[in-house]
C-alpha cells in the first residue's frame, strides 16, 4: 500500500521543496494538496516530479469550486489529482437546520456532477462538527451522504472519534462511499497538549490495526493520507507515522 501525506501538516515546515524531498527520502510516494501549495502550479509539479511523488488527491474549497469549477479541474489535472475533496466549513458558514444541511448537500452534488463529468471524482472531507448534532435522527454527515448519493467521502477517522462516534460503524454503513482516508491519531488524555491533543500515528489511542483491516475489507479507499493538525516536529511525525503504518501492513 502507498501512503500519502496531507501537506497541511507541513504548513509550518517550509520551504516546501525541502518538505517534499524529505518525504521522498522517508519513503512516501504520494502527497495531498491544499490551498497554499497551489500558488505556483508549475513549480509544484516540478518539485513533485523531481522527488518521484504523485498527488492523487487534493483539497479545494467548496466556494472556490462553485465560483470557477473549470479552473480547478484544469489545475487538478495538471497536478495529477484524480480525487478532489471539499474539506471544511468555517463555523460562520455551517448550516444550522436540517433544511440548510440538505441544501448544502445539494451544493456538493452539483459540484460533483461537474467534476465527475470531467473524469475526476469528488467528495466531502469531514471534521467533527458533522457528527455532533442530529436533525430528525440524522447527523449532518448522514444528511450529506444521503442527499448527495453520488459523491465520495474522504473519511477522517480521528475527527469521527472526536465527534463522539465509532468509526467502525460508519465504515460498515458507508464503506462503499469511502474512497480516501485521513490517517491520524489522538493522544491519550492529558498528553500532547502543545499539539492540540493529536499524536503521531501509532502513538495514540486510535486502534489503527482494526480500522485499516475494516477499511480494506469494507470500503473503496485507495488513498491513505497521513495527517497531524499541529505537529511540534513535522519530520518526527511524518517518519514515525509512516513506520507505524508499514508495521501494521507488514511491509
UniProtKB/TrEMBL annotation:
Residues 23-232 form the Xylose isomerase-like TIM barrel domain. The keyword Isomerase applies. InterPro entries: IolE/XylAMocC-like (IPR050312), Xyl_isomerase-like_sf (IPR036237), Xyl_isomerase-like_TIM-brl (IPR013022). It holds the Pfam family AP_endonuc_2. Keywords: Isomerase. Gene3D superfamilies: Divalent-metal-dependent TIM barrel enzymes (3.20.20.150). It comes from the Bacteria. Transmembrane segments: none annotated. Signal peptide: none annotated. SUPFAM superfamilies: Xylose isomerase-like (SSF51658). One of its GO terms (molecular function) is isomerase activity. This is Sugar phosphate isomerase/epimerase.
Amino acid at each position: 500500500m502507498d501512503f500519502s501525506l496531507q501537506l497541511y501538516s507541513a504548513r509550518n515546515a517550509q520551504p516546501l521543496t525541502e518538505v517534499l524531498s524529505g518525504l521522498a527520502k522517508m519513503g512516501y510516494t504520494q502527497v495531498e494538496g491544499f490551498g497554499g501549495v497551489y500558488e505556483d502550479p508549475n513549480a509544484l509539479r516540478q518539485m513533485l516530479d523531481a522527488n518521484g511523488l504523485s498527488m492523487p488527491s487534493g483539497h479545494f474549497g467548496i466556494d472556490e469550486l462553485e465560483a470557477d469549477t473549470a479552473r480547478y479541474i484544469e489545475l487538478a489535472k495538471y497536478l495529477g489529482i484524480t480525487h478532489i475533496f471539499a474539506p471544511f466549513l468555517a463555523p460562520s458558514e455551517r448550516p444550522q437546520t436540517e433544511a440548510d444541511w440538505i441544501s448544502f448537500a445539494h451544493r456538493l452534488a452539483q459540484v460533483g456532477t461537474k467534476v465527475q463529468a470531467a473524469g475526476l471524482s469528488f467528495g466531502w472531507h469531514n471534521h467533527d462538527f458533522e457528527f455532533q448534532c442530529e436533525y430528525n435522527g440524522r447527523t449532518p454527515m448522514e444528511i450529506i451522504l444521503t442527499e448527495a448519493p453520488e459523491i465520495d467521502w474522504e473519511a477522517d477517522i480521528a475527527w469521527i472519534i472526536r465527534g463522539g462516534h465509532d468509526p467502525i460503524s460508519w465504515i460498515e454503513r458507508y464503506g462503499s462511499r469511502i474512497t480516501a482516508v485521513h490517517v491520524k491519531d489522538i493522544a491519550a488524555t492529558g498528553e500532547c497538549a502543545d499539539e492540540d491533543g493529536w499524536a503521531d500515528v501509532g502513538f495514540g489511542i486510535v486502534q489503527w490495526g482494526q480500522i485499516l483491516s475494516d477499511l480494506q475489507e469494507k470500503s473503496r479507499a485507495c488513498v491513505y493520507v497521513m495527517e497531524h493538525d499541529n505537529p511540534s516536529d513535522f519530520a518526527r511525525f511524518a517518519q514515525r507515522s509512516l513506520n507505524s503504518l508499514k508495521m501494521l501492513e507488514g511491509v
